[in-house]
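Tokens in:
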């Protein structure tokens, strides 16, 4: 079992009312295969595999009115302690910690600006089995109108240290956890809807950002921010046919 260091994003999953459609769209886009959870209580939760190794998941929404959303999970060795820290730091516990069968313990949380994320305390499942290759998660990024509040909040919750990195006109922040920068933060782009609250964006690596963006549109998705070059590679922001936001990067 590959263990992911506490404080590091370890998993991403999609909560969507259009689970059947997601199981069509993403495998055609990323070459994934799906493995459906046998437990009836899992509601058809599907683990997506790339070359036989787990990369992400998809399941039904937690509440009937939940919009389709990709969630970032941060590894922890104590989900209950993180939930306590989130409340103390001015965030919100959306779903209190609970066990997912024998797989792990998780909680759904929100920061002060309302960006929702989850934590994962591994048991039988440590998270994704592969990262940073085409079809696997390669980056997680907080998009928020309140970077100063976020710096304080995530330092208290995960011990993350912000590192400013000027990228063109905007200030980009890397989140350092120990020896590694594990995630990023940026202010919202002009192209995004102004009423979009703070959110965590999940990036998947691809061979070719332009071809993948075009393919997503062919399959019924939307290109939200067309492919453009950034220091990490060529990236685009997309929505799936149900409206869930995700990003892709052809790593340079």
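Residues out:
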């Amino acid at each position: 079992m590959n263990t992911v260091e506490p404080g590091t994003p370890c998993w991403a999953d999609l909560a969507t009312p259009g689970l059947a459609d997601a199981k069509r769209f993403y495998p055609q886009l990323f070459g994934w295969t799906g493995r459906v959870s046998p437990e009836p209580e899992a509601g058809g939760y599907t683990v997506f595999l790339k070359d036989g190794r787990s990369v992400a998941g998809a399941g039904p929404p937690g509440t009937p009115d939940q919009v389709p959303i990709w969630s970032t999970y941060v590894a922890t060795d104590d989900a209950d302690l993180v939930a306590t820290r989130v409340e103390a730091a001015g965030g919100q516990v959306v779903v209190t910690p609970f066990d997912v069968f024998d797989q792990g313990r998780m909680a759904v949380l929100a920061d002060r600006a309302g960006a929702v994320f989850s934590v994962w305390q591994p048991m039988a499942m440590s998270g994704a089995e592969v990262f940073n290759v085409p079809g696997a998660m390669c980056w997680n990024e907080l998009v928020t109108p309140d970077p100063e509040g976020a710096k304080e909040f995530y330092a208290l919750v995960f011990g993350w240290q912000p590192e400013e990195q000027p990228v063109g006109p905007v200030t980009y922040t890397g989140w350092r956890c120990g020896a590694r920068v594990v995630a990023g933060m940026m202010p919202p782009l002009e192209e995004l809807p102004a009423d979009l609250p703070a959110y965590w964006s999940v990036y998947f690596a691809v061979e070719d950002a332009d071809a993948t963006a075009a393919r997503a549109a062919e399959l019924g998705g939307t290109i939200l921010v067309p492919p453009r070059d950034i220091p990490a590679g060529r990236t685009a922001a997309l929505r799936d046919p149900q409206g869930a936001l995700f990003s892709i990067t052809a790593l340079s």
